[in-house]
Amino acid sequence: MKVETIKKNKKDLVSPKPNLESYEKEYKKFNWKTAEKEVEWFGKDSINAAYNAVTRHALSSKRHKVALLWESDTETKHFTFAELDDLSNKFANVLQGLGVKKGDRVFIFLTRVPALYVSFLGILKLGAIAGTLFCAFGPDALKDRLLDSGAKIVITEQSLKDRVEKVKPELPALEKMIILEAGQDMKDYEVDYNKLMSAASDKFDCVKTQAEDCAFMLYTSGTTGKPKGVMHAHKAIVQQHMTAKWVLDIHDEDMYWCTADPGWVTGISYTILGIWSNATTSYVYSGRFDPDKWYSLLQKHKVTIWYTAPTAIRMLMGADPSIAKKYDLSNVRHACSVGEPLNPEAVRWGLKELNILFHDNWWQTETGAMMVSNYRCMDIKPGSMGRPMPGIKVGIIDDTGKPMKPMQEGNLAAKPGWPSMMRQIWNNEEKYNSYFKNGWYLAGDRAKMDKDGYVWFIGRADDVIKTAGERVGPFEVESTLVSHPAVAEAGVIGKPDPVRGEIIKAFVTLKAGFQESDALKKEIQDFVKTKLAAHAVPREIEFKKNLPKTRSGKIMRRLLKAQELGLPIGDTSTLEDY
Ligand code: ATP
Ligand code: MG
Prior knowledge:
By secondary structure, the protein is of the alpha/beta class. The chain folds into two domains: 33-449, Rossmann fold; 463-565, GMP Synthetase, Chain A, domain 3, CATH 3.30.300.30. Adenosine-5'-triphosphate binds next to β14, β21 and β22.
C-alpha cells in the first residue's frame, strides 16, 4: 500500500498556535491527574459536568460571552453563558418541582431548539440522568428506548408529542410529558414548558454529584444491531474538555460548528460538554443538510472550526462544484470528521476544492470522547484515523490479547480506565462485560497500526470479508470505489459463495450525470483491480439510488447483507428513510 503524507507546514501553525504543540512530547509526559485540574471540582471526588459547561463561566469574566449561537431557517438567537446558566437553573427547578430526583432518567425528544440545550444542562445540574432521542424517531424507536431506560419524564414539542403519546400506555414509568408550546387541551400528565419555566426561580444550587455518578445515557447508532443504552459519568467531562482543546483545537475566539445532532454522542460531547467547558461559542443550525446552505452558513458566521462526518463530506463532494465556489470559506482554519471511515479521496477533495484539511478521528458512543485522532500539529496520512489521545493506550491485538506487529490486522482495543469510558450498559450487565477481555476494552472494530503509531481502520469486526483465503476490509474497497469518477457512495459486503467462501459485492450510487450500465460496472471492476488488488475486486456490483443509512449517516452494511441474502433485517429503528 502506497502511503501518502500531507505534511504540515510549520509556518501555518502560528495563528493561533495549536493547543497541542508536540504530540510525542505530550504523549510521553501526560497524566490524567494533571488534566483533571483543567476542570472544576467541588471536592476530591465530586464534579458536575453542567457546572463545568456553564456555571463556572457564568461566574467568571466570560459571563457575557455567547455560548450558543442558534439559528433556524427563520430566526437567530444568542445565549450567553450567564443566560444558559440561569435558564438551566430554572429547568432544574422545574424538574425538582415535578419530583425528579438524582438518578432518575429524563429524556429529551426535541428538534434542535434552544430548549434542548437548556434542558440537557438542567437535568445534569439536578443530578438526574439525561437521555436524548433523535427527533426523527418514530413511536417504536421511542418505546424501545423509553421502556428500557424507565424514563420518568419526557420533554417534547407540539409537533412530536403524538409519537410519544401513542406508546405512553406501554410506558409504566413515564409520569409526565413537558411540552414546548403546549396547546389548550392538555392531558393530566402533560405540563407546559413555558409556563413552568416562567414561574421557576433562576437560582439553583447545582447538585454536587460524584465523579462516577451517571450524567447522561445514549443509545448507540444501531449500525450493527439493537441499540444499547450506554451510561456516562460526570467525570467524562475531563476527557471531553481535553480532546476539544487538543483535537478540535478550540481557542477562546473561535466560532465552532458541530453538525451532529445531540441525539448522538458527538452532539452531546462536542456541541455541549467539551466545547462549553472550554468556554467557546457553539453554533447550532437547526435545519437540514443542504450543500448551498451549509457553505453559506460557514461563510456567514465566519466559522473557524468545523466538526462534521464522512457522509456529509461525501455529499458535498457529490454536489455541483460550482456551489462551493460561490462562498468564501477561508475562515475555517481547522476541520475534523468522525462517525465512519473517512476515505482518503475525501481528504484530498477537501484540500483541493475547499482548501480545508479534514482531520479524521475515531471514537464510539461507548468511549464517550475521542480516542484516536489526527491533531493539528501532526502530519496527516489520508485514510488513517490518527494516533491515540495522550493518556490512552490503544492496542491492536489478536483474540488472546497479544499485540499484533505493525500493519498486521487485529482487534482495535484500548486499556480500560480513560475518564469518559462508559460505566454501564443500562439493564444489560452481560453486554457490558462482553466488551472487556484479557485486560482490554474491545471496540468491535478491526484495524492496524503502522510503525509511527497511526491507526488504520479496516472495518467492523462483523463486516470483514473472507474471500478465497484472503481477508478484505470493506473500507479499503469502498475507498477505492469512491475514488472512481462516477461513484458517489459505496457499501461493500461479503456474500456467501460455495467456491470462495465469500465474494465481494458492492452497492454503488452514481454521481449526477453518470448512467448505470454493464460497461460502467466492468470499468469500475477494472479500476479496483489496478488500484487495489485482483482479489479485492467486487465480483458483483449493484447500482442503487441510495444506500441504507442510520439517521446519524452511517452506511448499514448489515441491512444490505440481510436484503441480499433474504434474511431478517433486525432492528431498523435508526434507519433513515431511503
Ligand atoms: P451500534 O453499536 O449500535 O452498531 P455504531 O457502532 O454505529 O452503532 P456509534 O457508537 O455511533 O454506533 O459509532 C461508533 C462506530 O463508528 C465505531 O465503532 C466505528 O465502527 C465507526 N467509526 C467512528 N468513527 C470512525 C472513524 N473515524 N473511522 C472509521 N470508523 C469510525
Ligand atoms: Mg458500535
